[in-house]
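Comment thread on ticket #2218

A.B. wrote:
> Attaching the input chain for the structure job we discussed in standup.
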Amino acid sequence: MYLVQILLPLTAPADRMRLHQFDTVKQQLTAKFGGMTFYRSAPAEGLWQESGDVEKDLIVTAEIMAAELEQDWWDQYRKRLEKDFAQKEIVVRAFKIERL
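C.D. wrote:
> Ran it. Output below, let me know if you need it in another format.
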């Protein structure tokens, strides 16, 4: 069993409707995996350095549990999220877990 986390930016360019995008992610992941969890109440602050400047995003996390990792599916989904959220990179990470 795997726990997959997707780190999504809370802030958006002025012409993007982020709430609609979150609803779409919820629907897609629930349809594919039978459920998901969204952590939006206390966004995390993500910092990184690019070209000497420090960039900042507020981040929310989407989580799902999956019996197996479908690497190709996740690669394509990450690329679609990067386009939909207008990001250079969306972090998708997986942890092997054991249900208790």
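A.B. wrote:
> Thanks. Noting for the ticket: Residues 2 and 42 are 24 Å apart (CA to CA).
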